């Protein structure tokens, strides 16, 4: 974000696409590192973990593995990729929904992109004074089985007072309607957040509070982007992506930052920093 026009468009829409943000070399490096991570992963240690954005599934599946993933590298599978015995029915590289949530802490390749001077410049232009990186993810959206991400606001899951959350979404492959690009409701970030996912009292799972929101599908605008672009996502803008029925995957590296200056991270958020790994300042 380097022009007044870009800043104005972001403030109006709640999201912005910046083309040609990441180099081809950086893209290849990120994908190669992720491939190696998956190669070393033993599926039988993680197969009970599927990932879903529907509330019923979240209430059932959120457990210690997920709740303690903020300072670790953990693996979440798509639905329908295991047989009745819990064994994978497809190649593990084609079965994962995502890896999260501290890639930026453990792997220099991801750390370098996250803390790059270009990223820092964007954050400063958006008015962030003392931002911290709270989570990072590698999202696969594999062919045929890549699950739907229902309409949501990131701040439903990552909440601050006052609200100051930003998503940095970097596609490592071209994203089209066919392989389930992001879709946004422009301007929806101006209506606030009324529904939240919070920790239960025992800290072992989550629950949703606030009215269930209904969205008009006709308002969603598909946002096709080229690999290496940067998509800025306001914490309160409503967005989604459909099931990937195509033959092409849709790999993405994404992370979120939160302001800390005169801003409080909610103790009700599922994600909490730990003594062993506090949230890392973005500006280094």
Q: Based on Cα principal axes, name the global outline.
A: globular
Order of helices and strands: HEHHHEEHHHEEEEEEEEEEEEE
Largest sheet: 8 strands, antiparallel
N→C terminal distance: 19 Å
* Poorly predicted residue ranges: none
What's the alpha carbon Rg, rounded to whole Å? Answer: 18 Å
What is the strand tally? 16
Instruction: Give helix % range.
Output: 10-25%
Helix-strand category:
alpha+beta
Overall mean pLDDT stands at 93
Strand content: 25-35%
Note the total helix count. 7
Structure, explained:
The chain has helices at 4-13, 24-40, 55-61, 64-67, 103-106, 108-114, 117-125, and strands at residues 15-18, 73-77, 96-101, 131-139, 149-152, 160-161, 165-171, 182-184, 196-199, 206-209, 221-223, 230-234, 239-241, 252-259, 264-265, 280-281. The longest helix has 17 residues, at 24-40. It is α+β, with helices and mostly antiparallel strands. The strands form four sheets. Strands 1, 2, 3, 4, 7, 12, 14 and 16 form an eight-stranded antiparallel β-sheet that branches. A four-stranded antiparallel β-sheet has the order 5-13-8-11, with no helix packed on it.
Summary?
The chain has 284 residues and is α+β, with helices and mostly antiparallel strands. It has helices at 4-13, 24-40, 55-61, 64-67, 103-106, 108-114, 117-125; strands at residues 15-18, 73-77, 96-101, 131-139, 149-152, 160-161, 165-171, 182-184, 196-199, 206-209, 221-223, 230-234, 239-241, 252-259, 264-265, 280-281. The longest helix is centred in the first third of the chain and has 17 residues, at 24-40.
């Amino acid at each position: 974000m380097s022009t007044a026009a870009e800043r104005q468009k972001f403030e109006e829409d709640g999201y912005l696409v910046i083309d040609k943000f990441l180099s081809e070399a950086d893209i290849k490096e990120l994908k190669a590192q992720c491939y190696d991570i998956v190669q070393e992963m033993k599926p039988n240690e993680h197969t009970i973990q599927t990932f879903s954005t529907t509330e019923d599934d979240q209430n059932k599946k959120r457990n210690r593995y997920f709740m303690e993933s903020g300072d670790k590298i953990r693996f979440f599978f798509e639905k329908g990729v295991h047989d009745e015995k819990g064994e994978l029915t497809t190649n593990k590289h084609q079965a994962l929904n995502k890896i999260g949530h501290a890639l930026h802490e453990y792997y220099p390749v991801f750390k370098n992109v996250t803390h790059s001077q270009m990223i820092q410049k964007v954050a400063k232009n958006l008015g962030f004074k003392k931002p911290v990186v709270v989570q990072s993810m590698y999202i696969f959206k594999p062919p045929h089985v890549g699950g739907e991400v229902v309409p949501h606001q990131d701040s439903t899951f990552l909440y601050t007072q006052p609200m100051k959350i930003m998503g940095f979404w970097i596609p490592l492959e071209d994203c089209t309607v066919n392989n389930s690009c992001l879709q946004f409701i422009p301007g929806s970030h101006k209506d606030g957040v009324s529904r939240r996912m919070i920790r239960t009292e025992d800290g072992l799972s989550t629950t949703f509070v606030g009215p269930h929101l209904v969205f008009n599908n006709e308002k969603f605008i598909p946002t096709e982007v080229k690999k290496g672009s940067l998509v800025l996502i306001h914490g309160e803008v409503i967005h989604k992506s459909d099931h990937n029925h195509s033959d092409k995957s849709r790999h993405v590296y994404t992370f979120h930052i939160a302001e800390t200056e005169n801003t409080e991270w909610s103790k009700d958020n599922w994600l909490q920093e730990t003594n062993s790994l506090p949230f890392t300042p973005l500006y280094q």
